[in-house]
Amino acid sequence: VWLAAVGRVDLLLLDCDIEDNDPEEREITDRLYAGGSEHRLRQEIVLGIGGVRALRVAGYAAEAFHSNEGHAGFMGLERIRELVVEQGLGFNEALEAIRAAAIFTTHTPVPAGIDVYERDLVERYFSSFAKECGIAFDDLMELGRPPSPSEPASTTFNMAFMGFRLAGRSNAVSQLHGEVSRAMFGSLWPQVPVEEVPIGAVTNGVHTSSWLGPEMSEVLDRRLDPGWTEAGNIEWERIITVPDAELWRARERARERLVYYIRARLRKQLLARQASDTELGWTEDVFDPGILTIVFARRFAQYKRATLMLSDMERLKALLLSSERPIQIVIAGKAHPRDDGGKEMIRRLIHFAKDPEVRGRFAFIEDYDMEVGRMLTQGADIWLNNPRRPLEACGTSGMKAAINGALNCSVLDGWWNECYDGNNGWAIGSKDIFDDPDYQDRVDAAALFDLLEREIVPRFYDRSEGPTPRRWVERIKSSISTIGPFVTADRMLRDYTLRLYEPAARHGREMSQNGYRRAIALAEWKGRVTDGWSDVRILEVEGDVTQASVGEERAVSARVRLGRLGTEDVSVQLAHGPVGPNGEIGSPSLMEMSIGDCEDGICTFAGAFASHRAGLYGFAVRVIPSHADLNNPMDIGLVTWA
After folding, report:
1. Which carries the bigger pLDDT value, residue 432 or residue 225?
2. Which residues contact 36 (CB under 8 A, 6 or more apart)?
3. Which residues of the chain form CATH 3.40.50.2000?
4. What is the 3-state composition of the chain as percent helix, strand, coil, each rounded to the nearest 5?
């Protein structure tokens, strides 16, 4: 275990390449995206189980445990094992204890991006682990089981499903990704309305100082108060007071630095292929420091559509080769080693970049890494992002470009869906999603070229008010002032700390007190409520369903059979709201109904609501579990509707 001090934070790095391990074990941590399923599983065992043990040995008393994707998901199993072996808890009791302090973040809206293992492979590594936890291996498999009641026994183990089941709190990485994730994983809570599936959202952010170029850093340091990286909206809005010429000079210097960097990288790429001096000559004049520079740089997954711009060669070449208002485009990125589609995109782009007609204004930079990414985000005029909506979870590269003064031109996906306001960049197409992906590509490609030809290029080259493109700089100021305070890692960490880390740490402490008394009680309660929920029935609902006038109060009553459960085990809720054209209640309001008389397991509940507008008002009654230690009332996934 290596210790790296990253500022004020200690980072533990797990390394299997030590002499005490046999050759096969030493290879576990030798690469990231290679090897088969077993190699990947072994890596995740080291990260999850080994990570917890490393923290213990190093003396860190962690109070909240955060798993990003399922990669570190086995840390939940290790924490359960600790409590079973060291504290004598039962498996379900230990599960409730560790869930209280656990957070799970899903990062992908694409099922193919989730690790799924075959039963035989998992059994080979975890059969003895299950015994140590006091359960049968089939019970351990249930944690990663697909939520299909038709399967008598699970044959696959899904790391994301395990992540959700072992965490008391979960989130996606942008608001739109939250919507996608609630739909994608809603089957884990089959009775819960999709909008109430307990998956929240914390939009990603970027570490400003790591990505900000010297040109923009000088402007912000000079014009904003010290500590501006942690400032709120008001401080960032001061960018509007920066003289246009000063901001434009900073952008020109950054673009010039990028152009010289591109020339050097292209020359280096050709030298690696043993190119002659004659072949190297053209790289000395490639790109122009005064031309509108568009960058597309990211992981080459197929849904990101890196080759969308190649779909209309005539329009693309017309833009690149214009004598009056040309553009230049630089591409960079890598594909997953097993993603043949992504690698084919790279091949097509490199082939186009070699065309002598366009190679002076279209380049592919190889060996994409953080250095390349930093240079591109600092020097771009336009940061291009055209994924197939809504498959972009967040997409932080555009954030890095925005704080440097680049303008985003993106499909309304990921973080851009919640930050775009019409004046701080450009949106490609609309929010419409078509069933035919080829048709979607044609629509979005046409929208992209329309934006470039009609809005972006004319605005960049508009010098009607002097040498500074006033309307372009105006949009830069709008971009930085609105996007800057939102995309910082400081904002992201505040969100995680206040909404997830502090509540999780506090709840974890509470559940562990007095010999884990509350965790033991919650496990018993969940078992009892789950077993008895089939008895819960709403027998009768009474209320006025005629037209309502504004402010009119409507009373609703319900008779509910609770069976073996008590009134303290449930919450009976009244959902109400205006009825839409489709006959359904849109975005219903919820209120708790009060308890009346109870006899022989049947209780009456009453509630009332006031209509906020005239017309048809609908209502419905439902019963959900209620317990003080549930992080979310939908946590168990039990709902009974009238």
Report:
1. 432
2. none
3. 31-204+500-510, 216-486
4. 50, 20, 35
